[in-house]
Specification:
The complex is a heterodimer of chains A (101) and B (1006). With 101 residues, chain A is of the alpha+beta class. Chain A is 17% helix and 33% strand. Chain A has a single domain (3-100), classed as Folate-binding superfamily (Folate-binding fold), CATH 3.30.2270.10. The radius of gyration of chain A is 15 Å and the shape is globular. In chain B, 22% of the residues lie in helices and 27% in strands. Chain B is built from 24 helices and 50 strands. In chain B, strands 8, 9, 12, 13, 14, 15 and 28 form a seven-stranded mixed beta sheet that branches. Classes of the chains: A alpha+beta (101), B alpha+beta (1006). The interface between A and B is medium-sized, with 26 and 28 residues. Chain A: InterPro entries: SoxD (IPR006279), SoxD_sf (IPR038561). Chain A: Pfam families: SoxD. Chain A: This is Sarcosine oxidase subunit delta. Chain A: GO terms for molecular function: sarcosine oxidase activity.
């Protein structure tokens, strides 16, 4: 069971969290101005990288707050967790290598 | 077995069993005596019984080859009765107690004479892949003929058929250093880690700490016999407050992020366990550091007849002798590729067992032990090996033969014996390391795989990483303990104990694969995986048939796939595959080790979560009243809801008909507490509601209600419910019973991640309001006298309004809403006062013939009105318009969740499924919910489905059946005849409006 650091509560077991899919996909400000293709892109298209992904988590059985995390999908190692609204943090090559290990 | 031989297998003065505490147990109905401290295997062996089971495929007689959890053969069922029997335990781990009953498995009618053994005669016809190849044809024979026969003759034990009366516990815990394995390396590591200040957990799967030291009579530590050093060290550990010690506890899973699972067996060894003690406890341990000290497993040798009772591992015989005081035979032959077997020979000799010969496949074994054995007068044949063991239910002789240059085998000679010991060298136990995702690395010097680089915060120590010399093992353990404590943050100086160790000098040895054999050996029953009956030639056959990857060979032959997880077989299978493929072992690799290390009971996994504790049982405050009125209940998500209130002699249909008519004619009372409720509060509450729901909220006046419909971003209906505006900045939102948590999560998601500009708070109030629905033409007359002077007349409080007040002094939010189509109110009160209020309303309703009704009547009443239930009429692909709720969608709002998707072309398709009503042409025919609709009764299969029935009831109000359906282009089909094809008939139906009763809504506005 993964150990996940909630930015508000600290490290907690995975069972307290639910995954919310890929992060940093902003809901368009004016959806009606989008073409069907653009809207479908927003609605359905997600990355499925082998490696680092920025994704949303919710501390469902805790503070109930959403936050973002960078995780390596191959190893399930987390590089960093951060609050919603913050930009995706830079990952150093060392951090990436550690997460991939 | 004569009583003489039964008594003679015990060796006086040897072993750690308590000879002052005899226990009686039965095996296959026969009564035996053992001692406290015995395993079932050691006690049976003490009674001269080697035959303990039949094999999986060929039903060959089998005895134990090991003395621990690596045992593949001696698989038994313990306990008796339909609930208490535990199948598939290994006799080498089961501890005996007074009254234990055990049975052998996989035999009919009995262990000594088994009909299934006919498979053994047919064995040349049952190679690997036999089942895949043979039972292909005729196809329908598989389920009717082949599978039942195969299932009866194969398979292991019989599962219990009744609920398990034992109880199981679960605990979640943390520690700095978890040490898996309590042998010499584990004890040393635990001691130093604890001395460094770390919180330590130490677990061992057996009844006692000490591991190999419990059967090691040769070594001395600080001048003490090894077992006394164990006692001293265990006592020292027990004194340390920061050490938790667990025996009979298997570390069976190493999960991500150092989450390690332990299974502690608390009562299985006890004759009369305390009923308050759980049988097993599952521990989930989050360890900062893990020290794996899981030891090494001795390898069997692969030769013909290596599975016959009386053939066992050398270290097993040593364990039975020195730990349990049992001599496994009177005259032994020892086949070895390793020095450690010589010590076993010397131990057995000392206990009075004759050694017919040691046969060593190595050309020039040369060690102190070798010389000691020679000096003791033991016959040693070097550069020679065992060809075959003779005997069926017990061996009586073995053929030994020299290995010739070039690998062939010379003329053999028979040696009579009743015990044949195998010493193929040691296989480090890599299971936990491999589960931790660490990669194993081939070590050429030791000719085995060892732990490579760690993937998690763990380290291996002792023989599980190829360190075998006892002095080195202890030093390695000390070092591992210090290092683990340091990595866990305890880096102070530790006073390391300086232990003086004298032990046998162990040279290099070991053998993997099949032993050399005279001739081609194609008929040989030389077993690699005993439990799954996989022979050397099965592995060779798999290679011949084109399998190259060891993972494929494993699956095709099933080697290593039995309950013992290939502990004794993996390396030999690899060796045989390697020579058959002509590729070195390191290029082939090991198969993946999977959890659990040893089988874990389902009881341990379920823990407390069974029966009433499996899921929370949510009950409303009205539940006791409903029970007292004889309500029949149903589960709705986690809630327990009254379904109907039958009167004596009534079935459900009769009760529901009566309840429906009472509501339509007078008044009914219904517990709607389970509705989800969310309080949406804040200056931007109305704007938030505008964005979340398809409806407009800006113009909704304070004190007014509106039916709210919520879509997901994909435009499909997600939830619905009435929303009341309590104040300008406060909405009382209701949701479906099952949707409450999901709706709040979706609202929180948008609020927290998309609309941080909005000043709104969301609070779940589902548990803060109990809801009493009073529905029917007399509802107002019942309630008016109770609401403390509140004016609830139609003029002041019309349909779809809400007011705050009190009812008998109890705070109340009163909604005038209806899910029945009648004049109706929903009385919201705090749950702690709800029963009181309910009873007051009930009393006031009696003069009007007030009738309690349940969810079934609620469903019929709403269907008569064409009100949808989200999840029944809709299925996650219905838009608001599909569901007949297009009127609710605001045309004015620039945006709301789902709006853009509703504008997609596919959402405008006129052929989309739309909500309609159906009348069966025979009025009393009630359709089946979920039934399909077609346009023509004569369609050929596959028919062209154009819709399905979503709700269907008998309506007492209308005196006929009604149904709701989703039908392609349904609203343009009014009056059309469609057909419901059923198994035995085709039912014609007429498409109609989904509103069957009071279409103009006159009954709501009174």
């Amino acid at each position: 069971m993964l150990l996940i650091r909630c930015p508000y509560c600290g490290e907690r077991a995975e069972v307290e969290f639910s995954n919310g899919g890929e992060a940093h996909i902003d809901r368009p400000r004016d959806p009606m101005s989008l073409t069907d293709e653009e809207w479908a892109q927003y609605l359905y298209m997600r990355d499925n990288p082998k490696g680092l992904i920025a994704e949303r988590w919710r501390h469902a059985h805790g503070c109930n707050r959403f936050f973002n995390a960078i995780r390596d999908t191959r190893t399930d190692r987390f590089v960093v967790t951060y609050e919603i609204g913050q930009p995706r943090p830079e990952v150093t090559p060392e951090q990436a290598a550690e997460a991939a290990r | 077995m004569s009583s003489l031989s039964r008594a003679s297998a015990r060796v006086p003065g040897r072993g750690r069993v308590n000879t002052r505490r005899p226990v009686r147990f039965t095996f296959d109905g026969r009564s035996f005596e053992g001692f406290e401290g015995d395993t079932l295997a050691s006690a049976l062996l003490a009674n001269g019984v080697h035959l303990m089971g039949r094999s999986f495929k060929y039903h060959r007689p089998r005895g134990p080859i090991s003395a621990g959890s690596d045992e593949p053969n001696a698989v038994v069922a313990v306990g008796s009765g339909p609930a208490l029997q535990t199948p598939n335990l290994v006799a080498t781990q089961v501890e005996v107690y007074d009254g234990l009953t055990a049975q052998s498995q996989n035999r009919f009618p009995c262990l000594q004479f088994d009909m299934g053994a006919v498979n053994n005669l047919a064995s040349p016809l049952i190679p690997s892949g036999f089942y895949y190849k043979t039972f292909m044809w005729p196809r329908n024979f598989w389920t009717k003929v082949y599978e039942p026969i195969i299932r009866r003759s194969a398979g292991l034990g019989v599962a219990p058929t009744e609920p398990d009366p034992d109880h199981y516990a679960f605990q979640y815990t943390f520690c700095d250093v978890l040490v898996a394995g309590g042998g010499p390396a584990g004890l040393a590591a635990a001691l130093t880690a604890a001395k460094a200040g770390a919180e330590v957990m130490l677990a061992d799967e057996t009844a006692e700490f000490g591991g190999s030291l419990l059967f090691d009579r040769a070594s001395r530590i600080d001048g003490l016999p090894a077992s006394e050093w164990v006692e001293r060290t265990v006592a020292e550990l027990k004194k340390l407050p920061n050490v938790r010690m667990f025996t009979r506890t298997t570390v069976f899973n190493y999960g991500p992020h150092n989450m390690v699972a332990l299974n502690e067996r608390l009562t299985d060894h006890l004759s009369t366990p305390n009923p308050a003690t759980p049988r097993e406890r599952l521990w989930q341990v989050r360890a900062k550091q893990v020290v794996i000290a899981s030891g090494a497993i001795e390898r069997p040798l692969v030769f013909e007849g290596n599975d016959r009772p009386g053939v066992m591992l050398a270290s097993a015989a040593q364990t039975y002798l020195n730990r349990y005081g049992v001599a496994c035979g009177r005259k032994a032959v020892i086949a070895t590729a390793d020095d450690s077997a010589y010590r076993v020979a010397l131990d057995l000799l000392e206990a009075g067992v004759k050694i017919a010969a040691i046969v060593d496949i190595r050309p020039k074994p040369d060690s102190e032990l070798f010389r000691k054995a020679k000096a003791a007068g033991i016959k040693v044949l070097v550069n020679s090996t065992v060809q075959r063991a003779h005997g069926s239910q017990r061996i009586h002789s073995v053929e030994l033969a020299p290995v010739l240059p070039g690998g062939d085998v010379g003329e053999g000679k028979n040696y009579s014996c009743d015990l044949l010991l195998m010493a193929g060298g040691w296989t480090p136990s890599l299971h936990l390391f491999s589960q931790s995702k660490g990669k194993v690395v081939y070590n050429a010097e030791l000719d085995t795989y060892l732990p490579g680089e760690s993937a998690q915060a763990e380290r291996s120590t002792g023989s599980c990483r190829g360190v075998y010399d006892l002095g080195e093992v202890l030093a390695d353990g000390l070092k591992a303990g210090v290092a683990a404590a340091k990595d866990a943050g305890f880096d102070g100086e530790v006073d390391l104990p300086l232990w003086e160790v004298t032990s046998d000098a162990i040279g290099r040895g070991g053998f993997t694969g099949a032993l050399p054999r005279r001739g081609k050996g194609l008929t040989a029953m030389a077993f690699v995986d005993y439990q799954n009956d996989v022979t050397a030639k099965d592995v060779k056959l798999a290679v011949r048939e084109g399998f190259r990857s060891i993972e494929h060979i494993k699956r095709y032959t099933t080697t290593g796939m039995a309950t013992d997880q290939g502990k004794t077989s993996n390396l030999n299978a690899l060796g045989i595959a390697s020579s058959a493929l002509g590729r070195p072992k390191q290029q082939i690799g090991l198969t993946t080790f999977r959890a659990p290390y040893t089988p874990v009971t389902f009881g341990a996994f379920s823990g407390h979560e069974r029966g009433n504790l499996f899921d929370p049982d949510r009950r409303t405050p009205i539940d006791p009243w409903a029970r007292s009125k004889g309500a029949v209940f149903e589960d709705v998500s986690l809630w327990r809801r009254a379904r109907y209130f039958p009167q004596p002699g009534e079935d459900m249909d009769a009760a529901v008909a009566r309840e429906c008519l009472a509501v339509r004619k007078s008044v009914g009372i219904f517990d709607a507490t389970t509705l989800g409720k969310i309080e949406v509060v804040g200056p931007d509450a109305a704007e938030f509601m505008n964005r979340m729901y398809v409806n407009g909220w800006t113009k909704l006046g304070v004190g007014k209600c509106r039916y709210g419909l919520m879509c997901r971003e994909n435009g499909f209906v997600y939830d619905d419910g009435v929303v009341g505006r309590i104040a300008k900045d406060r909405f009382h939102v209701t949701t479906t019973t099952g949707g409450a948590a999901g709706v709040l999560t979706m609202m929180e998601d948008y609020l927290q991640t998309e609309w941080q500009d909005l000043d709104v708070w969301l609070t779940s109030t589902s548990e803060e309001w109990a809801v009493i629905a009073v529905q029917g033409p007399k509802a107002r007359e019942v309630l008016a006298p109770l609401v403390d002077g509140l004016d609830i007349s139609h003029a002041t409080m019309p349909h779809m309004s809400v007011v705050e007040g009190t009812i008998g002094g109890i705070p109340m939010r009163l909604f005038r809403v209806s899910f029945s189509g009648e004049l109706g109110f929903e009385v919201n009160v705090p749950p702690s006062r709800a029963l009181e209020v309910w009873e007051r309303i009930w009393e006031a309703g009696k003069p009007y013939g007030m009738t309690p009704y349940g969810t079934e009547t609620m469903h019929v009443l709403r269907a008569e009105k064409g009100y949808i239930i989200v999840g029944q009429e809709t299925d996650g692909t219905a838009t608001p318009d599909d569901a007949g709720c297009g009127w609710a969608v605001s045309k004015l709002k620039k945006d709301f969740v789902g709006k853009r998707s509703l504008a997609l072309p596919a959402m405008q398709d006129p052929d989309r499924y739309q909500l309609v009503g159906l009348y069966t042409q025979a009025p009393q025919e009630v359709l089946e919910e979920g039934a399909q609709l077609v346009a023509s009764p004569n369609e050929v299969i596959p028919m062209n489905k154009i819709g399905h029935v979503t709700s269907s009831y008998h309506s007492a109000t209308l005196g006929r059946s009604i149904a709701l359906a989703m039908v392609s282009g349904g609203r343009t089909r009014m009056g059309e005849t469609l057909y419901v094809p059923m198994e035995d008939k085709v039912i014609p139906v007429t498409v109609t409006s989904p509103v069957f009763y009071d279409a103009e809504g006159a009954r709501l506005n009174v």
